[in-house]
Structures are given as structure tokens and as C-alpha cells.
């Protein structure tokens, strides 16, 4: 990709971003798992213990047999018949769940992948590179590569990511075929597998740290605040002694109430309301705010987040935003949706089945995101705390609007002896709601480039087309059973 960057001295310069010098790698993976579980009943108690073992080995064309073994996942659940009549259930479950790593990591971190993240030229033919030290496009470092011919440096103690989950609740049959319930859900990421570059971001732009940091290379590890910063970089630039990685945090809390009526007297119903909050600084395998899908090697931990030099020194290099917002353990994560409502009902009248579904959900939190100075690509560094909002064409908003959808369904069955013909009709978004689903939160599209003309518009840098709720759709069908 080539971007044209305005410059007051040279008029404009030509910047190459995200280019690779190597071809795709052939990778393999071996995965084994086994589990044991049992059920114990003691009076009105039912206990379900279990344990699962998982092992994974990945192979790239530079590094083979990256083994993620010894992953023991215990889990236990219990149910108590509180009233002894089989109508009241109190339950709790806890489990650990490991995350199997896709081969994207083997292709990129375990293979010889070398690319350019920034290369500046005076001419559109890319024949006149801009020498380092020349102030152009607001920067003086005009050539940065990433990756290494031998793949990532592997931490021999690196282990697989996992999630802990705890659920506790009760359910009571209040009338025949009708039950109500409530439950609490907690999830957290207990450990994450990611690649890190152990130099602060500005270390790749300063002359005094060029030998220590060089170009971006990565260490595949389980990052935390104990992950060391490059000691040679600290020796060359003592201000880096105050820089560190953030401990990864991903916390999900939810309370849900439900009403469930099984089909009886011609009708059934399912209703639920969930209040939840998702906080932390690490989303998981997929980065929802900029669409990055690189499990285990996302950009969230590529550079130390607890880094005051990003603003104190980086501002002079054209850096926007503050990388410390990425490390905030209480940040609002992009998939946070505090309120979720579902109402689903069916009514049977002879061979006619009528259905109604109502869904409602809070909108997505909005965070302004500037380009990454090293990679130059957009949607990386917050310029304000996560979820603090942006100025949109519809005014200043901290979230996209609450989204609701009403769907209806009807089917009629014709009988021909042992055969039957079912005619079906579905209408999605019955009232043709046109709620905005997302706004473009990218402040600019390239490092030191002009402002993004679509910032605050109902568009996206990830998904093509207007970010408006899908309009009314009608589906007709027939099913013949014999």
C-alpha cells in the first residue's frame, strides 16, 4: 500500500506501508485432547466433576515443534434440589477453558516473515528513498521493517491462553410448564499468549536507541508487568527505565433473569434480560475495534503500554494519542454491551404456527483511535480513554444507539397422508428500523497523514458499506417431508 503524505517542505512524500518480502509459509499443527467426567448423587445434591487435558504443537518453516503442552482444565458443577419437590434448582459451575491457537501464529511468528512497515520516498516511482535524519512527513526515521528471517524469539516457558468461568444461579417452576430463574456469570482471561516487542515505541525512532532497538522484532511469551524491557535500550536512554508492560485484564460480569414457558395450551414463551459489563485492556484473539484477526499475535501487546515517553517524546515525532490508554485495566472493551433483552414467543392454532421475536441490545462503546507510529496503519492507539466517546454527525456520543429488531414468522402445514408440506414466511426487522450500528472512529488513515474524512460518519474502516441496521427482509420457503 502507498499513501501520499502532505509535507510543507517537499509538497508531498510517498509512504509504503505493510509490505512483505517473503511469501506465504506452509505450516502444520498437531492437537490432542482427552477428558474424564462423572456424576455423583448424594441425597438432593448432584455433582459433576471433570478434567480435560489439551496439547498443541505448531510448526512453521523457521521454527518447528512449538509445543503448548501440560494444559489441565479442571471443571466442577453442582446442583441442589432446594425444596425437595423437583421444582427448585440451585446450581453453580466453575471451569477452565484453554484456547486452541490457529495456524496464523505458525505462519507469521514461527516462519520467515520479513516485511516493511514504513518506507518513505520523494517520488511516486519509489526510486528516491528519503534518508533517515531528514524531516519529512513529520518524522525523521523513514525506513522500518518488522519480523525476522528466523521467526519470533520463543519464550521456552510460554503457555497456552485460558479463560476461567464461574456461574451460579437458581431456577424455580412457578406454574406448570413455566419457570423463572436468575444467574450470575463471571469470566476472566487468566493467561494470554501474545508476541511483544520489548522496546518502547519511541525507541525505534531515536538515533541513540537505533542500535539497541533496530527494527521491530518479537518475543512470543505470556506478557505481564514482569516482562522485561530491552536492557540495552534502557542503558542507551535511561528514561525507558520507567516503562513497563501492563498486566493483561479481561473481566466479564453479568446478571441474567429468565422466564421460560414450554409449549402448552398452544403457546410457548422465552424471555430474558441481561445486564453485563466487560472491562480490561485485552480483548482476546480478535481485536474488534480495528478488525485485526491474528490470534496470539495481535498488536495490543506489541509495545509496552505503561510508557510515558510515548507522549513526552513521541509527540515530537508526530505520535498521536496515548499508548497508556491501551494498558488501562479498567478500560471499556469494544464488545461491552450493558443491556440485552430477548422476547421470543410461539402460538399454535391447529396447523398454523405463529412466532414473534424481539431483540434489543446496547450499542458499542466509541473510542477515537490514531494510527500506530511504527506500523503506520490506522485504528491502533486511543487518543482518549476507551469508551469516552467521539464527535459524530449525530452529535457527541459515547456509544452507538440502542438497537432493537422485531422479527415475525408464520408457517402452515398441509398433510397428505404420511407426507406433509410446510409453507413458511419470515420477516426480519419488521418495522424497517434504520439504527446506526457503528461510526468511523479512526482519526486518520495513516501515521502523520491528514485527518480521516469519514471520522464520525456511520461508516467503518473494517466493513464496507454504510453501518446501518439491515433493512426489512422477507423470506418465503416450503419444506416437503415424506
Structure commentary:
It is a single chain. The protein has 482 residues and is mainly beta. The protein folds into two domains: 59 residues, no CATH class; 411 residues, Beta Barrel (Maltoporin, Chain A). The protein has four helices and 28 strands. Strands 4, 5, 6, 7, 8, 12, 13, 16, 17, 20, 21, 26, 27 and 28 form a 14-stranded antiparallel β-sheet that branches. Strands 1, 2, 3, 9 and 10 form a five-stranded antiparallel β-sheet that branches. A three-stranded mixed β-sheet has the order 11-15-14, with no helix packed on it. The chain is globular and about 80 Å long. The mean pLDDT is 91.
Notable traits:
28 strands; mainly beta; 482 residues; 2 domains; globular; 14-stranded antiparallel beta sheet; Maltoporin, Chain A
- What is the β-strand count? 28
Main sheet?
14 strands, antiparallel
- What would you say the CATH architecture of the largest domain is? Beta Barrel
The average pLDDT score comes to: 91
Structural class: mainly beta
Q: Roughly how many Å apart are the termini?
A: 57 Å
How much helicity do the residues have?
under 10%
Total number of helices: 4
Q: In the CATH hierarchy, what is the class of the largest domain?
A: Mainly Beta
Could you name the ranges where pLDDT drops below 50 across 5 or more consecutive residues?
A: none
